[in-house]
Amino acid sequence: xxxxxxxxxxxxxxxxxxxxxxxxxxxxxxxxxxxxxxxxxxxxxxxxxxxxxxxxxxxxxxxxxxxxxxxxxxxxxxxxxxxxxxxxxxxxxxxxxxxxxxxxxxxxxxxxxxxxxxxxxxxxxxxxxxxxxxxxxxxxxxxxxxxxxxxxxxxxxxxxxxxxxxxxxxxxxxxxxxxxxxxxxxxxxxxxxxxxxxxxxxxxxxxxxxxxxxxxxxxxxxxxxxxxxxxxxx
Length: 234
Fold this sequence. Notes:
Elements: E1 4-8, H1 17-24, E2 29-33, E3 49-52, H2 64-78, E4 83-86, H3 88-96, E5 101-116, H4 123-126, E6 132-143, E7 150-154, E8 162-165, E9 168-171, H5 179-188, H6 203-207, H7 210-229
Parallel strand pairs: 1-2, 1-3, 3-4, 4-9
Antiparallel strand pairs: 5-6, 5-7, 7-8, 8-9
Helix pairs in contact: 2-3
C-alpha cells in the first residue's frame, strides 16, 4: 500500500502513539515536518491517507504553509482519501471544509472527560467506547462544524471536540499522547501553570498517575485509530 502521510508542525508534537499503531500493524508512513522545512505535496496522489498533528500556532495566522495544507486537505477529500487531524490538525480540516476557527471560551489544558454527542448517528467511529471517557487536551481555540459533518464528542469546556464527514475525522483533543510527550509538553511550557484553575490543570495534576492515564487513553486511541485505518485503501 502507499504510505500514510503524517504532517507535523513542531518537533515536540509528533505522531506519538499513532506512529506506534502504524508500526505495530506494519503500515508504511512518511513524516513531513513543516518545522524543519519539508515540502508539502500539492496533491495527495502518492499517499493512502493524510494525518495532521498539532502545533501552537493558529490556522488563522498568516503562515504560507497553512494555505498549502488547506488546499491539500480539500484535494484529499475531493479524491476520497481519508484525512485525520489532531487539535491544530482538526482545526485545519474544519477551515479547509468551510468551517471557522475561533477562540474557545476557555483554555483547556489537562485531562478532562469528553462525551459522545449522538452515539446512534456515528456508531462506526465510536462503537465500543463508553458514553464519556477522559482524554488529553491542550488548546485555546475551537472549530465549527463544516456543512455535512457529524458532531461526535463534546464537553463542558469545548462544545466541539470531534467531528466526522465521510472518511475524514477531526479531533480537537489529543489521543496521540505518550507518557514522554505529556512530560515534555508540561516541562516546555511552565508559564501555562502559573495560575491553574477551571479548565487548566496544574502540572502536578496533569502528571499524576500518568502511566495509568496514558494507558487508558491509548485504549481509546486504539479504537478510534483502527476505525479510521479501516477507511484507508490497502
